[in-house]
């Protein structure tokens, strides 16, 4: 299974996504494609989408932790891999320090 969430996709990419995916909401795509196709689709998206697309790609995999993440764009959260486990790191803001 592959889930793609985007802020905005180029029209050509969005049209191509509709070949393999359902779009339950605007710029949210879900498909049950095989793992090899999922990797190909993820690489296609990362190559053909600008950073402003704000992509998050979630792929179901058969080993622990059960998912693989890709992202493209600026986020408040960062994906870090530690010992093969992908984790979401949230940026901590101390209330006593001004946010720049």
The string of secondary-structure elements, in order, is EHEEHEEEE
**Which CATH architecture?**
2-Layer Sandwich
User: Residue ranges: pLDDT <50 for 5 or more in a row?
Assistant: none
Instruction: Kindly estimate the percentage of residues that lie in beta strands according to DSSP.
Output: 35-45%
**Silhouette:** globular
Q: Assign the structural class, choosing from mainly alpha, mainly beta, alpha/beta, alpha+beta, or little secondary structure.
A: alpha+beta
Assembly status: single chain
Brief overview:
With 100 residues, the chain is an alpha+beta fold. It has two helices and seven strands. It starts with a strand and ends in a 10-residue tail after the last strand.
Explain what you see.
The chain is an alpha+beta fold and 100 residues long. Helices cover 24% and strands 36% of the residues. The protein has one domain (2-75): Alpha-Beta Plaits. The protein has helices at residues 11-20, 35-48; strands at residues 2-5, 22-25, 28-31, 55-60, 67-72, 77-82, 85-90. A 5-stranded antiparallel sheet has the order 2-3-1-4-5, with helices on one face. A hairpin with a 2-residue loop joins strand 6 and strand 7. The longest helix has 14 residues, at 35-48.
């Amino acid at each position: 299974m592959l889930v793609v969430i985007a802020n905005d996709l180029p029209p050509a990419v969005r049209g191509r996504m509709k070949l393999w995916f359902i779009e339950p909401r605007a710029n949210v795509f879900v498909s049950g494609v095989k793992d090899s196709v999922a990797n190909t689709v993820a690489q296609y998206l990362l190559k053909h989408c600008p950073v402003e697309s704000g992509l998050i790609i979630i792929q179901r995999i058969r080993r622990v932790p059960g998912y693989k993440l890709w992202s493209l764009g600026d986020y408040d959260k960062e994906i870090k891999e530690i010992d093969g486990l992908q984790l979401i790191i949230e940026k901590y803001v101390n209330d006593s320090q001004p946010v720049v």
